Amino acid sequence: MHCRVPTPSSIAYTTCVKVHGIMQIASTHARLPAARAIAALADAANLSPETICASPEMISGEPEAVFMPAKVMFVPTKVIFVPPEMISVPPEMISVPTKTISGPAKSAPVPPRTPRPPPRTPNLRATTTAPPTHTPPTSAPLRVPSLFLRDPVFLRVLRVFVVNRFSQLPRALAERSKVMRFGDIPVLLAHPDWSRPAPVVLWLHGRTVNKELDPGRYLRWIRAGIAACAIDLPGHGERALEGWDTPAKTLDVLDHGVRDIDRVIEALADPTFHNVFDLTRTAIGGMSLGGMTTLRRLCDEHEFVCAAVESTTGWLEGLYFPTSWNAPASVPHWPVQHDTRRVAKSDASQHLMGFRPLPLLVLHSEADQVVAWEVQRRFIDMLRHHYTINNADPSLIAVRTWETTGAPQEHSGFGRVANDAKNAQVEFFTTWLKPTPPSEAF
What is the reported pTM? Predict the structure, then answer.
């Protein structure tokens, strides 16, 4: 492992660890000078500043490491690495505000481990605008091995540098957001003002990520007067399950996600929200696996006004079995083999008889290396034919593609055209949901 040290003398990100498979970034807004950040970490870990590591691995999502511009060596891996199977840490061990990084942190002796309290009964009440310290899903009670809990260096660093994903949201969004659970479904809600009824979009993220991804999307929505409801897909985010973010579990995530959608919509009607979500103006959308889940749900009876999907397809047979239709070389082969009958159950293209024509926005990179555009293009052809034979206008399906975007694998986000893609989506939702922008700009 080589040390590639960034050049700026002041940085926004001082360190990271991995929690439920997601990078947790500490001191995002601090922009600490390198020497000061190194001193804080060294003091917290009882290490000499000369032994702190510098590595940019966090930028590419590779093995976790402290990230600082300094001519220094490596910290022992166990000090900073938190694998997904080790993240059920008692809240008192990691609940530290980001601002504590600004100065030396003197650690108290590690208290003896106490038994975990029984889980609370799920309810629909929001915790606070800024949610409490992460609580692992009851469906996956994961624990940190006792070896690490007995390691005082590990615990000191963990206390200082593990921060909640929510604290990384843009301030304007965080002030108008709530994190809660609808039963066992973790939900991020954002509303323009939490007082007047607003249309709402239910958004489903892609495989391997979480509901907090791309907060700029939700901020654009609420600035346009549209509420956001983003959930963690089954086995992801706050309810991570080992292996559920792998290609082999895609169909399981999709099927469970389809069932979750109705539960979420029902929960948004709860009286505790005082009708701030106008469920007569509800849309649904998703990216990649979230988009597949969206398209499959639209094949059953629903009340959604419109839908938007990105980098996805509704033709799973074409995605998983490219040799069955003599796919061009540009269509990648799926890394695992699925059962054909199992695929048919989850494949939207196999259930189009129940697909009620509605306005649909499709965004895609033509160079996508994960979900090839050719697979989605053929599904769109099927869907337009379905609209036509049901006396619906096929132009209700709006498609926008780019030859290339510069995004990772031309799949994760839209790279240099991300602004255009997000603007197109906001314009689409505004057209069909007819929101009222908030009275005060933010």
Answer: 0.67
